[in-house]
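Researcher: Quick one. two chains, 805 residues in total.
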Amino acid sequence: MNGAGENNSLIKGIQVLDLADEKASYCSKLLADMGACVIKVEKPGGDASRGIGPFWKDVPHPERSLFFWYNNSNKLGITLNLEKRAGREIFCRLLERTDIVVETFPPGYLNRLGLDFEVLNTINPRIILVSVTGFGGDGPRSNHKSCDLVASAVGGQMYVSGSPSTPPLKPFGEQSYFTASLFAAIGILLAIRKRNQSGKGDHIDISLQEAVASTLEHVMIRYFYDHIVPGRRGSLYWNNEFCIVPSKDGFILLTLFQQWETLVELMESEGMAEDLIDEKWKNEEYRRLHHDRIVEVVQRWTKTHTTSELFELGQLMHFPWAPVYPPQEVVESPQLRARGYFMDMDHPEINASLRYPGLPYTFSSVSLKRWRRAPLIGEDNAHILGGELGLTKKEMETLSSEGAI
Amino acid sequence: MTEHAMNKGILTGLRVLDFTRVLAGPYATRLLADFGAEVIKIQSKKTASGAETNTSGYFNTWNRNKRSVTLDMSYPEAREIFLKLTTISDIVIENFSPRVMTNWGLDYENLKAVKPDLIMVSMSGMGQTGPWRDYGAFGPTIQALSGLTYLSAFDENSPMGLGYAYADVVAGLYAALTVLAALEYRDRRGIGQYIDLSEYEAACTLLGPALLDVLVNHKDILPQGNQPDYMPAAPYGCYKCSGTDSWCVIAVCNETEWEALLKAMGNPEWGREEKFSALSDRKKCSRELDELLGEWTAKHKAEELADLLQEAGVPAGVVQNTEDLSKDPQLVARDYFVRLEHPVLGATISDTSPIRFTEGTTGDWKAAPSLGQDNRYVYTELLGIKESELSLYVERGIVG
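Model:
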């Protein structure tokens, strides 16, 4: 099975069946980007995540979901109805030549279909099954329903995002799905390594809740060590190290604790340091206690400059300042452009080459630049089921009329 | 030798030179250490402060299961020792700003000369190339540059962002992923790899659909709080419950869940109104819907509501703070929090790995090392430096 990424040889030869919905479609995308052959297995008619926007030209359609496109590029696509016996039989035949299965069904669903890990393992003892669920495969809440909003809430992300005067805020985008997918992909590479030694597959259990709770940086540490329950602080960082203030044309993230005197000199040279030139402000503790006053004075100064002036000025002084970029400015970022971060992908059926966000890494010995857009619904049925599994045209027609593919 | 034994795991037998600090790098190497790699963290007395203070909770959390040696790179002899360490290692990970390793004469070409199949990861804020390569960046800097801070807000005039350095963790995860992929390649082909990982780009990958939307539809995207337009669900949001700062989230993604919600609420009359009958209608008048729902949630405790709704088949959950998390029955049942004994800090608690295999992995985990605790073992036993020579290095401050 030579997949879309045949030139991407980093982890060439690894065969993945991707049964995942939006919760973990990014997991096998991570592997596909590095050269694994990933076959997305959708139910006939297409996966429900094709209904998630945004959409190409803002027209909702299963073949136009940008969410689906982003999370499924570099994969092949077939349709298979696992709830039909004929569909399951084909799935089992595919299993024989598969290393990894990624799934996001509710715990117990595969069991009811007779496709739980023990069964898969009998068919192929080297199989690695990855289950990504809201709360994990066991425990009192394993059957609770989840989604990114629920995972963000129960994982501790929301309580510490937002301001004291607003409700808790869910970070933008499906962050729990992305982080769970990263953990799952790392788990897969670990499992392959383990299998190389033992010859045996494994079942990896990833919980969205735990994935979120594992990305909280200082939050749990302060609870366990300092008995503090961190709350929401708007744009002000928990230790006052960073804050966001308005500029002439937008917003800039500042840190006010590094090289204090340099900052004050800079403001004073424009006659805008006010009382911050006083000796007492040189004391860091004093500055922490009177942070509001500093922000008040600094804002009066930042409002006289554009965001890009402040960004350049700050970085020149080695302050880790940054513009609060809206996405429309992110795509114009000279840094991302200089590094060739964005990649063009052909979409022949709409006669377009579209620019995508690319990969955050480069490997010196391997080129990973070959891209293929996400599969259309059932695009590779003929190639994989006919070509690879050797089903005849007639068999395919029968399966199709039975609703199995 | 048993006193030097590390935890056993999938990566046992691999050695990692960990030249990273604070969070992004240490998060990556912690992941490798959790699964059995021998991670040797290189520290120095001069830099072991702040987040790198060995006896702080922060350090202990991100550096468990690792070894610590001291090496002061300001001495020329330190470079020779570093090269020797490289020859016995599989992987070098560093997260300095791009010029630092080169200035020490320790860039990939130099290291490859002594260890031809070396895998090296440089993880910096902006990556090793480009006009901003030398820019200073912490997690919040990256979040601001990526669009995450701007979009995580209730409106475009008050950007908020996340309350923690999320981008550092994400960069750490990508680093661990790329190391494991490079190992797979090395084992198959015998060829090492230099990996240039940009934390800025790593954060951008998590905004993929939004950036793609801008790139292909040429439009501006505004922050939308908890209720993005693109989400095919209503009601979908965060609702106030009884008690102080107590909230629950409710996500209704289809008609079955809508019916279940109405039933759980005792079938209020407004629920049958025409304007709420289909998902697309509910989405149009979501503000009114949220108000009506909010009146109901405000009368109940968040935990009771979440249980009631989950029982009914509606995705819901408590907006949990750290105390809730520490007692969360699901996390507790799955042993999510692991206790490790630390010689100075005593009994400490941290998160386990969310990557769960059939067999557990935490049985022989250790707390973070004290500063230079493995100097003797690493320098004399692994590198074969004579005791007398090591004493000299210590005396001169090279190992220090």
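The longest strand of chain A covers residues 37-42.
Researcher: Thanks, that's what I needed.
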